[in-house]
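Deviation from plan, reported transparently: flavin-adenine dinucleotide complex.
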Amino acid sequence: MINTTNKVSLSQYNTFGIKATAKELIICNTIESIQEAISYLNNHPQPYLVLGGGSNILFRNDFDGLIIHPKLTNIEVLKEDEKNIWIEAGAGVEWDDLVDYCVNRGWYGLENLSYIPGNVGASPVQNIGAYGVEAKDTIETVKGYYISNGNSFKLSNDECHFAYRQSIFKSNLRNKTIISSVVFRLNKTESYTLNYGPVKEEVEKKGKVSLTNVRQTIIDIRKSKLPEPDELGNAGSFFKNPVIDIEQFKQLQSQHESIPNYPIDNIQVKVPAGWLIEQAGWKGKAIGDAAVHNKQALVLVNKGNASGKDILDLAHKIIDDVNKKFGITIEPEVNII
Ligand SMILES: Cc1cc2nc3c(=O)[nH]c(=O)nc-3n(C[C@H](O)[C@H](O)[C@H](O)COP(=O)(O)OP(=O)(O)OC[C@H]3O[C@@H](n4cnc5c(N)ncnc54)[C@H](O)[C@@H]3O)c2cc1C
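Because the crystal trials were delayed, the predicted structure below was used instead.
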């Protein structure tokens, strides 16, 4: 039997610390309870949201519907050969616990994604990424259930249509599935990605290049740049880095010589949204309790009592100003609910 809880505070379920409520909440600890939650929803039609750690969510208002919170916390080795090991992690495993688990066992692949908040079940949704690595680099399959009919699915890496902060779970299957577990293929032999920003230099300061040193370096860099959600409500990068075509980029570069850029291919360039926001004069600015972080302009923060609407109003002002100054429309990375 599943238990539904009525009129629940979502304060603990969103890292922005927005004081919203939901009409009902079901916590699913098992596959059976996921199936029961789907039946319950189909027998009691209403708005719904599958929620992990709430670290990529902004609640605009109270949520007048059902929140389904998958909490399967198993980690299992499926198979291994000389080079690789395949592990399956439940949707409710804390992402960083999984990274720690793998690093401690000498399995390579997730260490650059250390200290990203949230749960394993959300990792394929926006194809989490940091320091030159994305979840798609190690995800082998994603397993779950379709909400419409309760049928199970198992999607291969290719079928997930991963791209920068994008996947099928944010496009065709947006809000249509409950991911129950993710299978990762990790390396058993040494392989590192150190060529992003200051990573290599900082790792070498710690001594020899090792899994634990890479993980600790990433954690240290992140702690120095990003606010801790427990101390200052936020959802990490609020905006995606826009990808623009090379002609538009060249034109911008002629007016703003120092514009940072990451070429994607011969025709597209990624521009850091944080730089655009800073140049538009928003870094460290606040409107009431909704603010732009003073160290990282890409991060919007709740200084205490901001509502979802306050954060969203600030986001819209930033989008307008960046558009006026650069002719680029930046888009939220965070899911606005
Ligand atoms: C301080 C900070 C730093 C961050 N840094 C990074 C970073 O470096 N890189 C990065 O990519 N992200 C980053 N993020 C964003 C966030 O951590 C990731 O997007 C994370 O994967 C969200 O996980 P979650 O469990 O909190 O998902 P939630 O916020 O609960 O949900 C996110 C989306 O996934 C869906 N979803 C969640 N679980 C499931 C499931 N089991 N089945 C189906 N759909 C599901 C939700 O419906 C929602 O659409 C950061 C956030 C914070 C607060």
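The chain has seven helices and 20 strands. We consider this an acceptable substitute for the interim report.
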